[in-house]
Amino acid sequence: MRHCNVVVLAPSSPGALDEERWGEVTVVRHRYFAPKSAQRLTGGEGVLASLRGDPLTRLQAPLLVGSQLAAIPRLLRRYAIDIVNSHWLVPQGLNAALVRTATRTPHVATAHAADVALLQRARLGRHLARFILDRTDMFLPVSSYLARSVDALVGHRVRHRVVPMGVSAERFQPKPPDPASRMILFVGKLVPKKGLRYLLEAVALLVERGVRAHLVIVGGGPLEPDVRADVTRLGLDATVELAGWVKNTELPAVYARAAVVCVPSIIDERGETEGMPVVVQEALASGRVVVASEVSGIPDVIDDGRNGFLVPPRDPAALAAALERALLISPQVRAAVGSAARETALSHTWERVAERYAEVFDEVSR
Question: What's the confidence (pLDDT) of residue 57?
Fold first, then answer.
């Protein structure tokens, strides 16, 4: 793989430097409101969540988009950039498409999921998506589900390659499972598309059947009060532990304690879902048994019965059955599933993902 000089353009956020180096990567942050301390869109729960805030925060959105658009040509000249790789079709993909029109700089667009859902909901989303993708030299969705969704949105097949999110196989190593463990692990932000309410209902069914289980929820978010209320309503106070967020450095040890990692994702009422859940890749790399919804990018990496188990989304009964099966499988089957999971993860390491990106960059720059 040839060496690439990488410059990252990101919006300014409180406490962050306007420019810095991360090893060989240059990070430049564009300011979009003055004073800097009054910038409200970035940081915290993210831009989309911030847009649901007060009017002043929403007023900053067009300023953020405009300042980003103005910053891209400056960076192209300053660093002699050969290719622009946008992440999220809006606004980054739109701005990169506009710059490509003016400068002919090749544009590679990566979609993650929420950006596609936003275009699907927008009144002019189809036209905007066509404008962006007509000015994109290669489209890189993180899942085949997103590729199909974009094809349906624009009304024709878009030239693409699926490149999923990666994982560090060095950080997340398989550890021998504790045969006595009945720990079900959930990791993620507490938002509707994660489908946690269906996992809680499934665990309640396990308890009713007399299946010993202990659910650990790692993460936080806007639905935390609802989750706590559901735990009490379902009589799961002695079964469910809300651990809050843990440091990234501590996550490998958390996975190692789990008998099962559950990813009960759904497509929520706003049409939002996962692109390729990072937790799936981390669990596979850790050699854990994964029980996950058959939704979005998850079936791209989970082969039902071989390296994990798939269930229909929003189906607590099916989820409970799969969790019971995963908790009670023999040590031999658990080892075989864990080995297959690790093998899958090794094909999606960050090094492999970088190689695929480099191949695309070589192709579009010819």
Answer: 82
313: tokens are 């989304």
Output the six-digit token pair for 28: 């430049």
**90: closest CA among 119, 120, 53?**
119
What sign results for the dihedral spanned by CA atoms 357, 143, 117, 127? Answer: positive
Q: Is 129 helix (H, G, I), strand (E, B) or coil?
A: helix
**What's the one-letter identity of residue 335?**
A
Query: To which H or E segment does residue 8 belong?
Result: strand 6-11
Give the sheet arrangement for strand 260-263, strand by strand.
240-244, 214-218, 183-187, 260-263, 289-293, 309-311
Taking the C-alpha atoms of residue 219 and residue 327, their distance in angstroms, rounded to an integer, is: 22
Q: At what angle do helices 316-328 and 196-209 cross, to 10 degrees?
A: 60
Using DSSP's 3-state secondary structure scheme, residue 333 falls into helix
Tell me: the pLDDT tens digits for 208-219? 999 999 999 999
- Domain 6-165+349-365 falls in which CATH fold? Rossmann fold (3.40.50)
Nearest to 11 by CA among 29, 25, 26: 29
Sequence-distant (≥ 6) Cβ neighbours of residue 361 within 8 angstroms: 4, 82, 83, 85, 108
Give the 3-state secondary structure of residue 281: helix
The sheet with strand 6-11 has its strands ordered as 6-11, 25-30, 19-22
Tell me where in the chain the CATH 3.40.50.2000 domain(s) lie: 6-165+349-365, 183-346
Mean pLDDT computed over every residue of the chain: 95
Closest CA to 189 of 224, 216, 145: 224
183-187 and 260-263 as β-strands: parallel, antiparallel, unpaired? parallel
Contact between 271 and 117 under an 8 Å Cβ cutoff? The reply is: yes
Tell me which CATH homologous superfamily contains domain 183-346.
Glycogen Phosphorylase B; (3.40.50.2000)
Handedness of CA 39, 42, 43, 47 (dihedral sign): positive
Query: Tokens representing 239?
Result: 């079964």
Tens digit of each residue's pLDDT (9 = 90 or more) over 148-185? 999 999 999 999 999 999 999 999 999 998 889 999 99
pLDDT band per the 50, 70, 90 thresholds, residue 45:
low
Q: What is the SS3 assignment for 163?
A: coil
Dist. CA 193–CA 267, nearest whole Å: 6
